[in-house]
Write a sequence for this structure.
């Protein structure tokens, strides 16, 4: 028979979905700022491999070459990004949800197996609870990245007033590079996240909106607690 | 959304409960998404501010910039000094980013230059560069930051603004909240808060890398205010005035944050 299994709290769902457009606006306005001085790239022995970014990139995303506008949006939405992230961290800390989130000792080893499973190289997924080892690492990392963006952002926003933060980030120049690298990291995370959500399917996606999953249970009530923890529906989000 | 009413819950079958909860949560999800999109469209189409000392930004964004400024000014203190560097780290070729107010003044002659300080409606004070050079010289080698995002360690020297104010007996005027600086032709102008002007590292510079300023760097006298972005570091200062309201500011009229502080 079908049963309703509670999965995501209302706090997690709201902060997750608020973060989505806010982060999008931060990246969009951040690119407008970056375009004013798009100095970064990756090169080896003076041979440029990647330039962030070629002109077509900005044009493709319909970005305007308008630094003032980018800054105005960035400095408004940074508040929402910060407050939303702060509330999420508070919730995770006080509800005890962090226990399901932070990587365990075994997570780094298990994450490799999760990767192999996702790539269809191995057939058996290591046992998992709400989040598997790879998810624990990824979701904890993204929280640290968020904190990193706020700190590096403040360091380049007020390098004199928060000069100790600027020092902590390796100076103004390096802080800006870190801030940029974190943004690239979000985009990278986003694509993998979307692919994983598609693979995980509807039941999993729905749980981030409505909070529950529907699982098929054998009629016996005694099995319920054990089967719940090993169910495959707990798969990648 | 999570906790549906217990009484109705028990009367429903599992399928009904699923349907009911899906309906409520997706209803809220789409309503919230819709309002977010509507809010975003409103912001994108919101009217531009009425041009005054600031301009060019959308009204809600300008409000946000000003509110954010008020918040971050709480952290401002003239005890916060900009990091200074040893001389050898200073750039040999100092970047020139903008020539507004300079390249559009064809008749300008450094020899005829005097700094004009507006004392009152009628009176003004004219100061020559030689008079300024008799004052104690202050050097600063710091990381100059452009609003565009680049930075460069630069070496400047001139008279400390606070020394200048005391020497020319401008202390009473300098009690005003703001100072306004303009190029001789009035094409470029900035407004600065009193605190930034009195910051111990703010100088009126006449030397760069131990040599007199070049024309493109604002000869004969420019402002170096390390607690602000480069846009506030006016080149070729022509006039100086004091007021308790914000003076006009070139980039703030173009949608930038008036404060532009670091």
């Amino acid at each position: 028979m079908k049963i309703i299994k509670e999965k995501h709290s209302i706090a997690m769902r709201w902060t997750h979905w608020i973060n989505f457009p806010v982060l999008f606006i931060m990246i969009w306005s951040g690119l407008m700022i970056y375009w004013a001085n798009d100095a970064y790239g990756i090169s080896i022995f003076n041979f440029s491999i990647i330039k962030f970014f070629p002109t077509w990139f900005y044009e493709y995303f319909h970005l305007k070459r308008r630094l003032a506008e980018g800054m105005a949006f960035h400095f408004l939405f940074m508040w929402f990004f910060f407050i939303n992230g702060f509330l999420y961290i508070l919730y995770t800390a006080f509800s005890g949800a962090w226990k399901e989130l932070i990587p365990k000792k075994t997570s780094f080893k298990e994450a490799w197996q999760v990767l192999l499973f996702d790539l269809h190289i191995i057939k058996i997924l290591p046992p998992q609870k709400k989040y598997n080892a790879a998810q624990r690492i990824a979701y904890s990392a993204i929280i640290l990245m968020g904190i990193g963006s706020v700190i590096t952002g403040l360091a380049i926003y007020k390098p004199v007033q928060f000069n100790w933060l600027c020092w902590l980030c390796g100076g103004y120049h390096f802080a800006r590079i870190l801030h940029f690298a974190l943004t690239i990291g979000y985009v990278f995370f986003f694509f993998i996240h979307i692919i994983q959500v598609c693979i995980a399917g509807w039941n999993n996606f729905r749980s981030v909106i409505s909070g529950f999953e529907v699982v098929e249970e054998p009629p016996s009530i005694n099995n319920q607690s054990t089967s719940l923890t090993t169910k495959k529906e707990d798969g990648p989000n | 959304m999570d906790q549906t009413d217990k009484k109705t819950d028990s009367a429903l079958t599992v399928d009904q409960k699923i349907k009911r909860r899906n309906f409520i949560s997706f209803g809220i999800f789409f309503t919230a998404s819709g309002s977010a999109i509507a809010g975003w469209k409103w912001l994108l189409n919101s009217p531009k501010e009425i041009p005054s000392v600031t301009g060019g930004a959308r009204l809600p964004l300008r409000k946000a910039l000003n509110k954010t400024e008020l918040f971050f000014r709480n952290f401002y203190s003239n005890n916060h000094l900009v990091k200074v560097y040893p001389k050898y780290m200073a750039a040999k070729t100092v970047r020139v980013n903008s020539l507004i107010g300079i390249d559009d003044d064809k008749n300008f002659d450094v020899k005829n230059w005097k700094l004009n300080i507006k004392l009152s409606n009628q009176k003004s004070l004219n100061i020559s560069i030689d008079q300024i050079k008799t004052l104690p010289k202050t050097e600063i080698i710091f990381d100059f930051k452009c609003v565009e995002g680049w930075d460069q360690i630069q070496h400047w020297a001139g008279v400390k603004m606070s020394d200048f104010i005391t020497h020319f007996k401008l202390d009473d005027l300098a009690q005003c909240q703001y100072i306004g600086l303009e190029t001789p032709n009035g094409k470029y102008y900035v407004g600065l808060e009193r605190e930034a002007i009195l910051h111990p590292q703010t100088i009126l510079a006449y030397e760069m890398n131990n040599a007199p300023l070049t024309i493109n760097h604002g000869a004969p006298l420019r402002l170096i205010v390390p607690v602000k972005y480069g846009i506030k570091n006016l080149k070729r200062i022509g006039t100086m005035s004091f007021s308790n309201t914000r003076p006009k500011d070139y980039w703030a009229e173009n949608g930038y944050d008036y404060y532009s502080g670091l």
